[in-house]
Amino acid sequence: VEVKIEVVIPEKERSKEEMSPNGKASPLIYKVNGTARHYHLEEHPIASNPYHNPKDMVEASVCHVKDLENGQMREVDLGCGKALLIKEGGEFHAVGHKCPHYGAPLVKGVLSKGRVRCPWHGACFNIGTGDIEDFPGLDSLPRFQVKIEKEKVYIRASKQALQTQRRTKMMAKCISLSNYNLSSTNVLIIGAGAAGLVCAETLRQEGFSDRIVMCTMDRHLPYDRPKLKKWLFLQSMDSHPEQIALRPKEFFCTYDIEVLTEMQVAAVDIKSKVAVFKDGFKMEYNKLLIATGNTPKALSCKGKEMENVFNIRTPEDANRVVKLATSKNVVIVGASFLGMEVAAYLAERAHSVSLVELEEVPFKKFFGERVGRAVMKMFESNRVKFYMQTEVSELREQEGKLKEVVLKSGKVLRADVCVVGVGAVPATGFLKQSGINIDSKGFIVVNKMMQTNIPGVFAAGDAVTFPLALRNNKKVNVPHWQMAHMHGRIAALNMLAHGTEISTVPFLWTAMFGKSIRYAGHGEGFDDVVIQGDLDELKFVAFYTKSDEVVAVASMNYDPIVSKVAEVLAAGRTIRKRDVDTVVFLSFRTGDMSWLTGKGS
């Protein structure tokens, strides 16, 4: 028996027009207070479907039908590229073998109930269609048709798909931008991060063909914020923000998604459905998504406004930090994810790196004391000096520039650069008089469909609290990159009245000194931590429990245990503290996944 795989484009997607209904997307210009502003739209030829060319196809026999058992995956080589061959339920499937997000090998991921989960960051893909079902990332996997002949498995695939290992889902385009009043839109998205972009893309993927406008205070089109620190510290000084863009400028042109940069919304009038911008411009909307994220907290001490004191928020901030910190003395305030990651990246570049933190141990509230101490030890072995259980009392200057950081403990630290990472607050101040429900901490309150208390107004991302199914629908704030993606998708589907509720399992990661900690679940309020492995060797898995139930898991050098546990939690199953030893043995040491479906012991 031979298995063949070929790229299949659904007929309804093939029939979609290759050009925008208005022929080409011309630049749109409007004037506010006499100043011309440009939407990010420009003429851009839309490429025809690359899979229509038969010369682009390759076919190869990859294995015998008995080479794979049900529930197994294998990377197979077609000569000009690889595919992931999967057998589940007696059927063969073939898709791209690399996760489109950061290129993780999916063969090392988790296969469960018709989808494969990335071992690194938890993105999930349907094995039958290749479509992305959970995030992070924007693109889906290419799908290849599998045929069996004479007990051999053949794959027939596009060479281009094998090389790119990604597929952007077909999208609708705006019917005719020329028919719209420039001061009105069907959908207005405030914020151009992951939540806002995924919302816009999902609307187009679902066939929405009315006008979509995104607005952002940033100078740039949406970019990959988790890549911000690492990318800038590893690149040369003349690198450009476009290198971490989530989508190129041409993408927004092609799919008629308008982006207004350096535009701040000052107020929202929910009765008249109008957003008022800081410069006086007003835009009417039919549906509204608020995805403004958060604002970094500033220090409250003397000298906080001094030159060379930074919150890393934009590419420009990070570029200045790395330029000024090279071979200099750096003080980082706050052992947050931001603070610790920046410390790790600067440790080899700066003359000295000092980290000031109010808590006794980094990450204590998030990862627990034992994991926090293991991470702290790793940092200390890489020349990072910690000053714990103290705060900054003053920043001193010399000739207008930072010279010293004075701690409340009395210690004085030499400092040429200070990076502040002491947390953030939701960027929702402009909504205080709007009538939109905001809680006591400033978070926008939404339901499982990302709807606010105002009809037609949705909210997503770091600025919201929402019911988390994993924690019995407790209202939580989950400021993770993956969750922002899913929020945006759920909001878009419910703008279209699909009635879709959010049920994803939170997944995050952090990278320091070449090592990654992966985390799934929501461990807020955990009362115990069960650790398997060796903390000293930085090879461990930690299970966070509350009242005997596992609510979160973290690991280092133990892939893909976190993705496996995420699949268990996503299936609605409960892991008890007494089950931890069995979970680790079956999932990691034996590779047996039967306990996911409840068929194993």
Automatic annotation (TrEMBL):
Write out the GO cellular component annotations. mitochondrion
Ordered alphabetically, the record's keywords are: 2Fe-2S, Apoptosis, Electron transport, FAD, Flavoprotein, Iron, Iron-sulfur, Metal-binding, Mitochondrion, Oxidoreductase, Transport
Name the Pfam families on file.
Pyr_redox_2, Reductase_C, Rieske
- Give GO terms: molecular function aspect only: 2 iron, 2 sulfur cluster binding; metal ion binding; oxidoreductase activity, acting on NAD(P)H
GO biological process terms on file: execution phase of apoptosis
- CDD domains in the cross-refs: Rieske_AIFL_N
Indicate whether DNA repair appears among the record's keywords: no
Domain Rieske, first and last residues per copy: 60-155
Subcellular locations according to the entry: Mitochondrion
Q: What's the family? A: Belongs to the FAD-dependent oxidoreductase family.
What's the stated role of this polypeptide?
Answer: Induces apoptosis through a caspase dependent pathway. Reduces mitochondrial membrane potential.
What protein does this entry describe?
Apoptosis-inducing factor 3
Q: Which organism is it from?
A: Ptilonorhynchus violaceus (Satin bowerbird)
